């Protein structure tokens, strides 16, 4: 028994012993017959070992719960419920969790499932898609329409001799100016056809027509009555006969 206790004590006193282990300032080993042998610290150390082993099991359970949340795809170890827990088991779980955290940091741009679901829901709301089955067809439709619009904008840029980087607002303003120019040219052509460049002269001519045409029309009607002619085409032959 003294030999076993001495071996245990030598392990505790060795440089490899954990620094937190209870150590006793051991004096020379004495006779155990009614005298102290220098091993009184061993029960305290063994009790501390037992507490640490129990804490190790609790730590293992906690790490297993954490790994289920962070790395659920890892298969459960068949020896998880064994009586003894090794530090290597804890180290394996910690390494797996740290690796997953590092991968998430590297792939921080990769959206999570809730984010993807929110994106799909937002797309359905924007483009009036009632079901998930309609998302892909609507996406293809939007892509086709976008291609057509892009080609149209490219052609308009070329026709208007605009830079390809010109925003749509510039294109709209340029088209508006062209429409204004066309409208002005049309107005000038109408004025030329009417023989006047002044709208007031047109109004004056219309007023003169309104003043002249009613008496002239009444005169013609009286003449038709006198000649007893119902057709305007017969008025000239009737006047010739009168002569």
UniProtKB/TrEMBL annotation:
Subcellular localization, as worded in the UniProt entry: Cytoplasm, Cytoskeleton, Microtubule organizing center, Centrosome
Keyword list, A-Z: Coiled coil, Cytoplasm, Cytoskeleton, TPR repeat
GO molecular function: gamma-tubulin binding
Location, primary (coarse class): cytoplasm
GO cellular component: centrosome
Superkingdom per UniProt: Eukaryota
A biological process from GO: regulation of microtubule cytoskeleton organization
Protein purpose: Plays a role in the organization of both preexisting and nascent microtubules in interphase cells. During mitosis, required for the organization and orientation of the mitotic spindle.
Subunit comment: Directly interacts with tubulin-gamma; this interaction determines centrosomal localization.
Protein name: Centrosomal protein of 70 kDa
Organism encoding this protein: Turnix velox (Little buttonquail)
Organismal lineage: Eukaryota, Metazoa, Chordata, Craniata, Vertebrata
Gene for this chain: Cep70_0
